Amino acid sequence: MSSIDVTLTEVAASLVLVGIAVAVSRWRRADLEQDLVVAVVRSFIQLTAIGYVIQAIFDSDSLLLVAALLAGMVAFGSFTARSRAKDVPGALTPIALALTVAAVTTLGLILVLGVFDAKPRYLVPVGGMVIGNAMTAAAVALNRLGDEIGGARAAIEATLSLGATSRQAAAGAVTRSLRSGMITLIDSTKTTGIVFFPGAMTGMLVAGAEPVDAVRLQLILLWSLLGSVSLSALIATGLGYRGFFTPAHQLRDAGPR
Amino acid sequence: MLDDVSVAIPDGATALLGPSGSGKSSLLRLLNRLSDPDLGTIHFKGDDVRELDVLALRRRAVLVPQLPAPLPGTVADNVRYGPSLVEREPDVNSCLGRAGLARTYAERDAAELSVGEQQRVMLARALALEPEVLLLDEPTSALDEATREGVERTLIELAQAGVAMVLVTHDRGQAVRVASKVVELREGHLVR
């Protein structure tokens, strides 16, 4: 694979575009200047740091270190997703399980099917994408689950009152939440290449790869992500609904909102 | 909400009467274990409700909610839902008839009905479980006057036909018309 050099001067030049964002915010009094500065500084520090970590892992060529890095991503992703699914009691365990299963299954299948070799160069970026998308799917699905159950307490209790289990009473809400966790990626997969160029393909084209290779890699990633996102949303909602109920199939009192 | 309430509810039709906030709905929810009390016990026909299988208990003491909450689907789907959970098939027409609905309602979309008709669907699907007691949580409070009278007449007919019920209401007239015993609550305490 060909590679390109990006100098720090070129990176610094792109700050001009951030300047536009700051100007827009100031002009329209959007009060986002501080957030923009924080975003720029954090992205620089976080990406630089992860860059060194990835470099070290590539140099060591150790799959154990890859696993450790991905485990760290799952942990961080789980806490991030939980903070977005505040209305779901006890969401951390379902989310952590969702991300773990999504990552292990997707990467495992990719390796078994021979799509990529078991090398840090493939596993780290692909694993990161899988976990990131699984995190978003779990967060979106559980956020929706909180809204669904919060808005349908009376209907759910009416169903429980007919002798339904909490699983049966929550089934509609769980299905709608699962859909909302999956639909974003499905929609963006439908429009990919028309409305936007996905990141991996863009990166490969910029780095000088043949368009046909960039497209093929992007298809592999998109299709793999569909699988991992569905697993993540399935596990997050399938386990997450339980937090709303007691073992005696009672809807718990609404938590602080 | 409820504090130091001790009450024995006999067979037949009993009304729990009180203003809103008096704890009567909370008391009703304890009977089918939608909630559990912090202190004290509830007995149903001699058994502590916490010792019973909660799903079976809810089929024996079926609660009809204050606001109708029909499941997606037809009226018949709603009537069949509860029994289907235990692989039983109810007589839909008979349930509709007892709830005051013509059998022509069976294939109508429950979501399209008026609130009064939906509340009758709630009654019909509760009756489909052949419960030992109906728990009625202000079943007419969401209805206009004409509809309320009709639903109340259905309740009276059910009571006269021997269906045991606990009716939560803030309407003293309704309590007296429907029930043979009235229990009155105020601010979480028993008045009489």
Outline:
The complex is a heterodimer of chains A (257) and B (192). Chain A is an all-alpha fold and 257 residues long.
What report would you give on this structure?
The complex is a heterodimer of chains A (257) and B (192). Chain A has helices at residues 8-13, 15-27, 33-60, 63-84, 92-112, 120-151, 153-160, 166-191, 199-206, 211-240. In chain A, α5 runs antiparallel to α6 (120-151). Chain A is mostly helical and 257 residues long. Chain B has one domain: P-loop containing nucleotide triphosphate hydrolases (Rossmann fold). Chain B is 35% helix and 16% strand. Chain B has helices spanning 24-31, 54-60, 75-84, 92-98, 115-127, 145-160, 172-178, and strands at 13-17, 43-44, 47-48, 61-64, 133-137, 165-169, 181-186, 189-190. Classes of the chains: A mainly alpha (257), B alpha/beta (192). At the A-B interface, α7 of A face α2, β4 and α5 of B.
Q: Which structural traits does this protein have?
A:
heterodimer, A: mainly alpha, 2 domains, 10 helices, 75% helix, B: Rossmann fold, 6-stranded mixed β-sheet, 7 helices, globular
Evaluate the radius of gyration of chain A.
21 Å
Widest sheet of chain B: strand order?
A: 4-5-6-1-7-8
Number of helices of chain A: 10
Q: Domain count of chain B, please report it.
A: 1
Proportion of strand residues of chain B? 15-25%
Order of helices and strands of chain B: EHEEHEHHHEHEHEE
Into which percent range does the helicity of residues of chain B fall? 25-40%
Largest interface: A-B, 17 and 27 residues
Q: Which residues of chain B form runs of ≥5 with pLDDT under 50?
A: none
Mean pLDDT of chain B: 92
Average pLDDT level of chain A:
94
Per CATH, the architecture of chain B is: 3-Layer(aba) Sandwich
Tell me the number of helical segments of chain B per DSSP (H or I, 4 or more residues long): 7
- Please identify the structural class of chain A as seen in this structure: mainly alpha
- Termini separation of chain B comes to 18 Å
Total number of strands of chain A: 0
CATH superfamily of chain B: P-loop containing nucleotide triphosphate hydrolases
